[in-house]
Amino acid sequence: MKKKSNKIFAILIGIAVAYYVLRVSGILVLYAIPSSGSEPTIKSGSFILATNLKTPKRGDVITFIFKDRLHPDAPIQELSYIFRLTAIANDTLEIKKGIVYVNGKNVDAQLELKHSYLLSQAQFDKLENPPLDAFNINEDTKMVFLEDAIAKKYALENKQFIEDKGIENDFIKEKYQQNWNKDHFGPLVIPEGKIFVLGDNRDDARDSRTIGLINASAITGVHWVTLF
User: Fold this and answer.
1) What is the dihedral of CA 16, 21, 26, 32, to 10 degrees?
2) 149 confidence band (pLDDT: 50, 70, 90)
3) Nearest CA to 216 among 191, 193, 188?
4) pTM
5) What pLDDT, in 10s, does the model give residues 66-89?
6) Looking at the chain, which residues constitute the CATH 2.10.109.10 domain(s)?
7) Cα dihedral: 211, 212, 213, 214 (round 10)
């Protein structure tokens, strides 16, 4: 019995050591996803595995390191982020009426995305599983972060909230010195050594529109699999 227990213990130690080596090398890293910025592709609360054995390419969901704050009063520190690699050096990126174009091509057409919608209380009540991330605009209007596929199912596509061109976003203006917003952005040519990332939850993601361009060298891995 003791020999069996020792064998199991040795196996567990071996697994732990192997994972430590894989993690430190970046070959296989486990991430817990605390936010909804990459929904619906990767749900908040999910666990994923990323690897540096895959070469990042446009359209991949990547992990990267970025110096940021967890909240305004917190110190700046290196944090791990996960977003979609949307544009690389020398690409021209533009967002028009909420649709993302890279080098003139609509890159949103092939993705499952999430946007904000303005729904009446009656429209909201008809949703089979009303999302929790909704808040009141006025007595009869809610801002709802909804998967586009669900909006299409309920014929709500025309309720998507798209900011008018010319409405400034203070965070975007600070980073790019332009009067852009989340739905009208660019055109922007990505400089050498930089990348542009976006969350699939387009209206509830703190991505390159507001935090700025990311160093290409900061990429640590490519999403391999979502565990649960």
Assistant:
1) 20
2) very high
3) 193
4) 0.90
5) 988 777 788 888 899 999 999 999
6) 2-91+190-226
7) -30
* Six-digit token string for 76: 């700046």
Residue 38 dihedral angles phi and psi, to the nearest 5°: -110, 10
Q: Is 64 exposed, middle or buried (0-12, 13-18, 19+ CB in 10 A)?
A: buried
Q: What is the CATH number of domain 2-91+190-226?
A: 2.10.109.10
Cα–Cα distance measured from residue 15 to residue 114, given in angstroms and rounded to the nearest whole number? 38
Q: What single-letter amino acid sits at 5?
A: S
